[in-house]
């Protein structure tokens, strides 16, 4: 299974890349149109979920679904 992590921040990109190298996760970085991406390889979906949970805690991030405002009830 492959997973891609994207960011527009070079600082976040470098931190994530260093974190993944320390965890010995096989990944490939790429830079395109001012954005940065890291593609992860050879992880099961449960390993990917666990890695993302640990990474969001480590870097004090939130998932996209948490950042979207909820619609007001009518």
Could you characterize what this model shows?
The chain has 74 residues and is of the alpha+beta class. The chain has three helices and three strands. Strands 1-3-2 form a three-stranded antiparallel beta sheet, with helices on one face. The relative contact order is 0.20.
Query: Strand sequence of the main sheet, in spatial order?
Result: 1-3-2
The amount of beta strand, in percent, is 15-25%
Number of helices: 3
Looking at how many chains there are and whether they match, the oligomeric state comes to single chain
SSE topology sketch:
Layout: E1 3-7, H1 10-22, E2 27-32, E3 35-40, H2 45-58, H3 64-67
Antiparallel strand pairs: 1-3, 2-3
Keywords:
alpha+beta, 42% helix, 3 helices, globular, 23% strand
Write a brief caption for the model.
The protein is an alpha+beta fold. Helix content is 42%, strand content 23%.
């Amino acid at each position: 299974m492959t997973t891609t992590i994207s960011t527009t921040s070079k600082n976040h990109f470098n931190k994530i890349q260093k974190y993944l190298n320390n965890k010995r996760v096989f990944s490939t970085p790429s830079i395109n149109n001012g954005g940065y991406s890291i593609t992860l390889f050879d992880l099961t979906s449960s390993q990917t979920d666990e890695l993302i949970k640990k990474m969001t805690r480590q870097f004090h991030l939130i998932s996209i679904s948490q950042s979207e405002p909820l619609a007001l009830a009518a």
